C-alpha cells in the first residue's frame, strides 16, 4: 500500500485548516491546503479588498466569472475560457495525483473525485450548523459575523460552481465521501482523532480483503 491518503472538503467555517494538519501529523504525511484561498475568492468578487497583490491576474479574472455581477462570456472569449479551464484541470489533477504516490492530507482540490479509486484513501466531508461555522470563521479571521456570513454565502457557492464547471461534480453531495464529520458537535481535536481512526479502520479492511 502507498503512504496514507486523506482528502478533506469543508463548508466554509468547518475548521478544516485546523483539523487537516492534525491528521497529517498523526499519520506522518504532508498537509496540502486548497489551491484557491478564501482571500483570492474575495478579491475576485471585490477587487482591492484585503490588498491582494495579484489584482488582474488570470486567476482573479477566472474567479471573477463566478461573481454575481459578472457578465456572461461572449462568443469571442469562450475559446480562451475553455483553454483556461483545461489548464487549471490539468495542473490541479497532476498535483493531486502526486498525493496518491507520496501520501498526504489535502483540502479541496476535488481530491475525493480524483483519488476516489485509490485503495485505502479516506475521503471526508466536514460540516457544522451554519451559526457555528459563521462564528468560527469570524473568530479565526478576526472579522465580524456579518462579514463572515457574506463570505460563507459567496465561498460555498463559488467552490461548488468551480467543481461543477471544471470536473462536472458537486462536492457538496456526500456520495463520494467515506465519512461526514460535524465539527459543531465535536471539537476540532476530536474530529481529527475520529478521521485518523477512520483512516486506519478503512486501511485495515482493505488490507484484509487483499490478504
Describe this structure in words.
The protein has 211 residues and is α/β, with parallel strands linked by helices. It has eight helices and five strands. The chain has helices at residues 16-27, 38-45, 58-64, 78-102, 111-114, 130-141, 145-167, 188-210; strands at residues 5-10, 31-32, 104-107, 122-127, 179-182. It has a five-stranded parallel beta sheet, with helices on both faces.
Q: Total number of β-strand segments?
A: 5
Please bin the fraction of helical residues: 40-55%
Output the strand order for the largest sheet. Answer: 2-3-1-4-5
Mean pLDDT figure: 85
Structural class: alpha/beta
Beta-strand residue percentage: 5-15%
> What coarse outline follows from CA principal-axis ratios?
globular
Count of helical stretches: 8
Largest sheet: 5 strands, parallel
Q: In sequence order, what are the helices and strands, one letter per element? A: EHEHHHEHEHHEH
How many angstroms does the end-to-end distance come to? 12 Å
Amino acid at each position: 500500500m502507498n503512504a496514507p491518503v486523506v482528502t478533506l472538503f469543508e463548508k466554509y467555517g468547518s475548521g478544516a485548516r485546523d483539523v487537516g494538519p492534525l491528521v497529517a501529523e498523526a499519520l506522518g504525511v504532508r498537509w496540502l491546503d486548497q489551491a484557491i484561498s478564501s482571500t483570492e475568492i474575495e478579491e475576485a468578487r471585490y477587487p482591492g479588498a484585503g490588498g491582494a497583490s495579484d489584482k488582474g491576474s488570470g486567476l482573479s479574472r477566472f474567479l471573477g466569472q463566478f461573481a454575481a455581477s459578472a457578465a456572461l462570456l461572449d462568443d469571442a472569449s469562450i475559446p480562451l475560457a475553455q483553454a483556461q479551464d483545461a489548464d487549471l484541470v490539468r495542473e490541479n489533477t497532476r498535483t493531486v495525483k502526486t498525493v496518491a504516490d507520496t501520501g498526504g492530507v489535502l483540502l479541496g482540490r476535488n481530491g475525493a473525485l480524483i483519488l476516489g479509486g485509490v485503495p485505502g484513501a479516506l475521503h471526508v466531508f466536514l460540516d457544522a450548523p451554519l451559526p457555528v461555522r459563521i462564528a468560527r470563521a469570524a473568530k479565526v479571521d478576526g472579522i465580524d459575523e456579518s462579514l463572515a456570513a457574506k463570505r460563507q454565502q459567496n465561498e460555498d457557492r463559488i467552490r461548488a460552481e468551480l467543481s461543477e464547471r471544471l470536473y462536472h461534480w458537486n462536492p457538496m453531495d456526500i456520495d463520494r465521501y467515506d465519512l461526514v464529520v460535524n465539527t459543531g458537535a465535536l471539537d476540532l481535536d476530536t474530529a481529527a482523532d475520529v478521521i485518523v481512526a477512520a483512516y486506519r479502520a478503512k486501511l485495515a479492511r482493505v488490507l484484509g480483503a487483499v490478504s
